Amino acid sequence: MTPYLITPLLLVGSNVLMTFAWYGHLKAPSWPMWLAIVISWGIAFFEYCLAVPANRLGYGTFTGQQLKVMQEVITLAVFAVFSVAFLGETLRWNFLAAGACLVAAVVFIFLPVE
What we know:
By secondary structure, the protein is an all-alpha fold. It has helices at about 5-25, 35-60, 65-85, 95-110.
């Protein structure tokens, strides 16, 4: 599989896991803090098992700057779905405007430099 395809797919998977690691415990406020931390660390291990290969396989096809901006846009998209589907929040105009700014960042980072 080409880095053009595998890199974003691995980044999506890693962001899904990291979103649950960082925010999933918000649905369980009765958990003691130590338990939320341990469970989050456990999930984050698997997130790293996807993020590290994504960046290593993608680097060279993409620059480090392109990888980072791609990751940020994926993070925002994954979190938008998570916040609505899992946390029951509403997407507001300012979240969507911030997303549009990040999409613009992707356009700029992938423009040819010469």
